[in-house]
């Protein structure tokens, strides 16, 4: 420690006393700090606790968990979807499952630092709407950083999280390797209750879940592995990164008083032929119910004429929703490209913003029927029974379908 102080050449006894006094004080302070460092090395559990507290000093005390839960360096990986890369909704179901387990175990979840992006859901045509062309241009990114989608600090207010590229995670790995069997367990087919209550697991620094071959969300579907802690489906959508929330707020302010519909078509209306050459689909009414003439009929009892209607959809046919203008003032994310362009780098970010806009609508009408408390464009359930049925194209065809 150095004190940059100019000592005046002044005669008298005081000048001969002050300098040695400063030297003694500096030496004492150096020994004091050295003793702190030697008794609190980063590679020890106590040192790790110190790092944890320093990196999470803005979080509540109840969120400062010293033990960690690791599910893998990519959502659903390992697992059968490791190579395919599912859509945002699927990956969020898996991520929510991992967050619920971390909450139940009172551990900090080590989240993947990146999320893969399925190219099917990453076409620019949704944002670059045109009345003359159907753009198939895609964003270049095959993945994006997790903190470009979600606000880690905001999530940590509910469930403590760190990213797997953080300094703290490397410290956890180092410490767990030094502790050996006392530091980490690689678990598979162990119930959450056992992980929480069995001292064989509960006292460990790190629980490694990567041994499971299942997709993450399957752990939450396992009836023997459920916990009483459930995060609502709205949790992750509301945890959007701050810059995405700011963009959504600007667009909502410009829209004013508005309603919103989410129209899921694209991959959901696909058909396949049965052995007789007849088209079959998992959502028999979806194609019909999400066409403009049927949308007008469906929402007229909920949305009065003249209202501003924000539409979020993966339908890329130019002018597809134009017939709705006979009754409503339509708005799309593409109307606000001057706000979105500087921020949006992929369709996952775009959909995060669109969800926030839809959540802020006076009335929000979903695509699929989830329960009786929500408005929906179709009565087809989102989670179907895996039965392929004949598509219904008119109102007269209802009730005449066979399995």
How would you characterize the overall build of this protein?
With 403 residues, the chain is of the alpha/beta class. It folds into 2 domains: 45-237, Rossmann fold (3-Layer(aba) Sandwich); 241-397, Rossmann fold (3-Layer(aba) Sandwich), CATH 3.40.50. The protein is 34% helix and 11% strand. The chain contains 14 helices and 14 strands. The protein has helices at 13-39, 45-55, 88-105, 152-156, 167-179, 192-197, 199-202, 216-221, 235-238, 242-255, 286-289, 292-299, 337-340, 347-359, and strands spanning 68-70, 108-111, 114-116, 143-145, 161-163, 184-186, 206-208, 258-263, 272-273, 279-280, 308-313, 329-331, 364-366, 375-376. Helix 2 packs antiparallel against helix 5 (167-179) and helix 10 packs across helix 14. The longest helix is centred in the first third of the chain and has 27 residues, at 13-39. The protein is globular and about 70 Å long.
Largest sheet: 5 strands, parallel
Number of domains: 2
| Large-scale geometry | globular
Query: What name does the CATH topology of the largest domain carry?
Result: Rossmann fold
What amount of the residues lies in strands?
A: 5-15%
Cα gyration radius (Å): 28 Å
Mean pLDDT: 81
- Counted by DSSP, the helix tally is 14
The strands making up the biggest β-sheet line up spatially as: 5-2-1-7-6
Straight-line N-to-C gap: 82 Å
Share of helical residues: 25-40%
Protein name: O-fucosyltransferase family protein
Transmembrane segments: 17-37
Organism: Prunus dulcis (Almond)
GO cellular component, one term: Golgi apparatus
